[in-house]
Amino acid sequence: MEALRQFYGEVSRLTAEADLLKRERERIDLQMTDLSKARDKVNRDLAQIESQSLDLAKEYAARAQQPTTPPLSDDTPPPSTTANKQPSLEIDSDHITATPRSRSDATPATNTVPTELDIIHDNFPTVVFLDGAWSEIWCGRCGTNCRAPPHKLFITGADGLHKHWCRIHKDELIKTLDHAIGAARRRLVSATDVERMRAGEPPLEVAITMRLADDLVQRKAAALAAKTSKIPTPNDSPELGRATPDTATNGSRSLKRKEVAEDTAGSGLHGVGSTGKMTTYEQFQKVEAEAKVGGALEAKRRRTSVEHPNFTNRSPEEDEELQDPSWSVEG
């Protein structure tokens, strides 16, 4: 009887555990169903995002193949034809140099879509999209499109033209950007040449020239004259006009030494001209030669002063000492 009771008790325990495991399995199956649904939803979202990304990539690829320059209107003739028929705005070509000096970097411009007043490339003049057409602009006051020598760099865009206008032409009453652009000289440029210049290549239909200012020579001459006028003259400084015999003699002696040294250097001392680069040994030789010349002149001056004393600069005491007693007049 006892064994039968134990058997029924064990069966009851195992049955309870089996029911518990069944309920746990049902709960796990339910969770797996929910996770499967969530996985399917995530897969659908990923597929939708990939589809949108593909459509966006196709759209950007189509935009990249379209030309960046604005198309010409049907009623507007080609820029090259118009440029040939219209008279040139240039006064003359005397101020145009033959070959411009490009900048150190020859890489294409990074900005492929310029703004209205932006320069398309640093190696070329200011070409902007103005009034519905590509045009090269330069200063309408002095006719320059570059900085003054020795820089020889093109003015960088409309901002550079505005800075040039405010700095060089200070007498202008209106110094705004619009006024500087409105007064600028222009030359039409075709879209083909614009694309070539944007890529860093020379244009085919127009000549790239560096235009110097019309009044560059006059301004340089005025600056030189102003600089020369600052040098003091004997009239401006009376002290410079008064020279004693000693200072005149010393000045002439220094001038002679300088002339002898220049003649020695110019005649190719030791095989080296005045324009060549001298070595250390040749410099010592030159100094030695100048010292010999200076010593000879100094010795000659001393001999001359002993044999022929200078009586033009005596004091009254020296005159009394040199008088002969036999020539004295008794009162």
Automatic annotation (TrEMBL):
Region annotated Disordered, chain positions: 57-90, 225-277, 292-331
Coiled-coil portions: 4-52
Keywords: Coiled coil
Domain of life: Eukaryota
Protein name: Uncharacterized protein
